[in-house]
Amino acid sequence: MDQCSSITLTLVMNMEEDQTCFNKWILMKIVLQDRRIQHFWPFSSREEWELAEFLNENLNQTQLDAFLKLKWTCKQTLLFSSAHQLSSFMDFLPSGPKWKMQTLVVVGYLTMAPIRLFFRDGLEVANSIFSNPIFANQALEEHCVYSEFMTADYAWELQDQYPVGATVMGIIAGSDKTAATRRTAGMQMHPIFLSLANINSEVHMKATSHAWMCTAFMPIVTFNNVHPEFHAVLDAQLWHRCMDMVISVWQNVGRLCQTLMVS
């Protein structure tokens, strides 16, 4: 990255500290302009971004600082020199749908720990996947070979009811209990993943395609002084309550339609 770009990055980082409405508008203009010129902005190249991604995913802050202080590393022309600075750079990358947190209470029952649902808006997740240019040529075409949802008669019967320019967006959901051990003290949660039926199933099967987006972490709760059989009933009720929060916006969209970005 040249000197001018470095100055721009410093300006943007300073403006982050003063988030007035005017500064936010200027900040967005700077970010969008620089990203059109350098696709891996705020990093200087794809190589530097790949190194930053590897360090961020595999080293903690202490290890990262130690690595960046090595004599070999100091000789490289990296734009970041500390874990804190790298974290600031990461904040400027496209984040996708924002995460939310909601604390829930089951009336009449106490739990070992607070019930917290971490989730994204289901419609924003669908929009993010639908507008991803990577999948622009992966949508199923008009050739009717029966194999998955978009090749079935029902999908096309629905499509015929929509005006020109509208399209059916099938939602696929998946879940599996996992232990979120990194930096979470062994916490266990049920991650919920969403994808689109419009995307070819062969693409779904490839983990590298990132066609699935983590949308929520369903809480795993232990209720105090509750019979095991009734515990399962409370778990099911809590599960449906959480899912309603994630996908509630789809109910109106199904009736009124929604304008989405197109890749």
Question: Helices and strands in order, then pairings?
Answer:
Blueprint: H1 3-16, H2 21-37, H3 46-58, H4 61-68, H5 71-74, H6 83-90, E1 100-104, E2 115-119, H7 122-130, H8 153-160, E3 171-175, E4 178-180, E5 187-196, H9 201-204, E6 213-219, H10 228-256
Antiparallel strand pairs: 1-2, 2-6, 3-5, 4-5, 5-6
Helix pairs in contact: 1-2
Give the distance, in angstroms, between the N- and C-terminal Cα atoms: 28 Å
Q: How many strands, what sense, and barrel or not for the largest sheet?
A: 6 strands, antiparallel
Shape descriptor reads flat
- As residue ranges, the low-confidence spans are 1-8, 10-19
Give the structural class: alpha+beta
| Topology, number of strands | 6
**Can you give the helix content as a percent range?**
40-55%
In what range is the share of β-strand residues? 5-15%
Tell me which oligomeric state these chains represent: single chain
- Cα-atom Rg, whole angstroms? 23 Å
Indicate the mean pLDDT: 76
Q: Could you describe the 3D structure shown?
A:
The protein is an alpha+beta fold. The chain folds into 2 domains: 3-90, no CATH class; 100-256, no CATH class. It has 10 helices and 6 strands. Strands 1, 2, 3, 4, 5 and 6 form a 6-stranded antiparallel beta sheet that branches. A hairpin with a 6-residue loop joins β4 (178-180) and β5. The longest helix is centred in the last third of the chain and has 29 residues, at 228-256. The chain is flat. Residues 1-8 and 10-19 have low confidence and may be disordered. InterPro entries: Plavaka. It holds the Pfam family Plavaka.
